[in-house]
Amino acid sequence: MDKRIFYIILVVAAIVAVAFYAYGGAVAKHAASEYANDIFGVAGSPMSTNQMYIPRQYGIKWMRLDINFLPGTASYIRNLSAQNYSILGILDYETMCDSSNYTGISCNWTLSEWNASVSKAVSEYPFVHYWEVWNQPQFSNYYSGFYNGSPENYYLMVRAAYNEIKSYNSTDKIICLGGDNIYTGTAKQDQYDYEWAAAFWSYNASRYCDYISLHLYTNMQQLNSYAYTGVSFYNWINESLAAYENLTGKPILITEIGIPSNDSTDPELGLNNTNQTQAEFLNQSFSLLLSKNYIAGIFWFNLKGLVKQPYDLDYGLFTNATMAPKPAAYIFRRFAG
C-alpha cells in the first residue's frame, strides 16, 4: 500500500475516533429519546366504537387503561387494539378486586394470587406489551390485599410481575413506581413519594424495571407560576425529574399530566381555568418534558369525561358529550404528529 494512502487512512481513523468520543460524551445513557415521538397517549375514558377514530386524528396513539377481566372492559380493550391503538395496561386493584366474580380471587388477595392474575392478564391480552405495576401505590385509598403500601411488598409484586410477563414475551416492558407524584424537594407529600420510591429502589428493583412512571399535577396554569415561595413550577419540574432520573437511571414515562379547563368551582383549585389556559399548560409542559432525552412518553389525563364530584372537573382533550376537540387537542396533535 502507498504510504501516503496509509497515512491518510490513519488520519481519517483518528478524526473519526476523536469525533466519536467527543460526541459520545454528549450522548445520553438512555435510548429513551427514540421513543419520545411514539408514546403519546391519554388515560383512556370510555368512548363508543364509532368514536374511536377521532383521537387518532389528533395524534393519540396510546391508551392507558386499568386491566380487569370484566366482559365489558375486555371487549373495549380488544376494540381499541383492533383500531390500532397501543395499550399501556395497569395491573392494580381493579385487576385484583373488580374481577373477583370472574377469577374467584377476593380483595384480600395474596402474592401467589397476584401471580395468577398477572398470568391471566398477559394470556387474555396478548396484544398488550407495556405493563404498569399499580396506580399511585403511595395512596392509601389504593391499598388492596397483599399490597399494604410497603415498598418491600411492592418490590415483591414487581419482581413477580416481571418474571411472569417476561416468561410470556421477553420483549414486553415493565413500568415501575405506578405514577409516583413528582418530587419538589419541599412539599411533604411529594417528598414522601420520592422517599418511598428510593426505599423501593434499594431492593435492587432496577433489574425488574424497564421504565419508571411519574404523575405531574399542579394547580398552576403556567410554568412560571410559583408553586412554593421562590420556586417556579418550571424549576419544580426540572428538579423533580432530575431527582428521579438520578435515582433510577431509567427512561421515564409521564403516565398522567393535566389540568382541567373549568376548575373555578373547586375550593382546592379555584383558578378559573379555561379551554385556553388548559391548552397553554399542555403546550408549556410538553415542551419542557420533551426537551429531556430520558422522557420516553407522555399520557394526558384524560381523553374526556368529568371527574371529582360534585365539581365536575373537565380534564379532557375532548368534550364529554360529543367528543368535539378542545383547543388542547390541537396542541397535543402538534407534538404527537
Structural features, described:
There is one protein chain. With 337 residues, this protein is of the alpha/beta class. It has 2 domains: 1-30; 32-336, Glycosidases (TIM Barrel, Alpha-Beta Barrel), CATH 3.20.20.80. 40% of the residues lie in helices and 17% in strands. It has helices at residues 3-24, 53-56, 71-82, 93-98, 100-103, 111-124, 151-168, 188-201, 233-248, 275-289, 327-336; strands at 39-43, 62-66, 86-91, 130-133, 173-181, 211-217, 226-228, 231-232, 252-258, 295-300, 306-307, 313-314. An 8-stranded parallel barrel has the order 1-2-3-4-5-6-9-10, surrounded by 5 helices. Strand 5, helix 8 (188-201) and strand 6 (211-217) form a beta-alpha-beta unit. Helix 10 (275-289) packs parallel to helix 11 (327-336). The longest helix is centred in the N-terminal third of the chain and has 22 residues, at 3-24. The radius of gyration is 22 Å and the shape is globular. Mean pLDDT is 85; it is low at 3-37.
Features:
337 residues, alpha/beta, TIM Barrel, eight-stranded parallel β-barrel, two-stranded antiparallel sheet, 11 helices, globular, disordered N terminus
